[in-house]
Design a protein that fits this description.
eight-stranded mixed sheet; single chain; alpha/beta
């Protein structure tokens, strides 16, 4: 697991705590290309995150199967996640199932339809994607068959299908690991495909009393 805690500082400041960047190959550059196409070029801290998080070994598999990132509000978390999820939807030979969870199902739906989709739609790669807004079946779908869906923050999340790239956003709101434990089994069937499944846990800072799951991730 790679764990990153980003400080409140200038955009080009290195993380206070981070798994180190190595000389392994990384998909970070490909994500940077997607971010530029979306009109949101990666800031130095964002580029550092994807370079480290998306390192692969000699077999082409992700070095880290889980990524934990904490970052201050309004620092660029939303644009980073959209670039990474869009890259994942377009980059792999196999159809990908990316799913996004926030502190509630309503928050996840609002993020997808009100923030992610307008940026995608307005970008040069927007014609590669379509959106489905039907309640309970919301998805951003790529022409190659990959899709970005949303999931409820419950222990039933991820049931009924395989997952390649689940994202748990605003993890400060979770008091236990039920959502994570629901998502992990859905990733197992995808381990045979390169570069492998990967879970991202992303959040602004929480509190010692309420953000027990996020705090335990920091300790790992």
């Amino acid at each position: 697991m790679t764990v990153m805690h980003l400080p409140i500082s200038s955009a080009d400041c290195k993380p206070r705590f981070s798994s180190p960047r190595t000389d392994r190959k990384t998909y970070g550059g490909a994500v940077a290309d997607i971010a530029r196409a979306l009109g949101t070029p990666l800031m130095p801290w964002q580029r550092h995150v994807v370079d480290v998080a998306l390192e692969v070994d000699d077999a082409g598999r992700f070095v880290y199967d889980q990524v934990v990132l904490t970052v201050p509000r309004q620092a660029g978390k939303t644009t980073l996640l959209l670039a990474v999820m869009t890259w994942r939807a377009l980059a792999c030979d196999e159809r990908q199932h990316i799913t996004y969870a926030a502190q509630s199902g309503v928050a996840a739906r609002d993020k997808m339809l009100d923030e992610y989709w307008p940026v995608l739609q307005a970008s040069p790669i927007g014609d590669v994607f379509t959106v489905r807004k039907t309640s309970g079946h919301e998805a951003i779908m790529a022409s190659g068959g990959s899709r970005i869906t949303i999931t409820a923050a419950t222990e039933k999340a991820g049931h009924g299908g395989s997952l390649d790239f689940p994202v748990i956003d605003e993890a400060f709101a979770y008091t236990d690991a039920r959502l994570e434990q629901a998502l992990l089994p859905a990733m197992r069937a995808r381990r045979r495909f390169l570069p492998g499944p990967q879970l991202w846990i992303v959040s602004t800072a929480g509190t010692d009393r309420k953000s027990t799951r996020l705090n335990s991730s920091h300790a790992n």
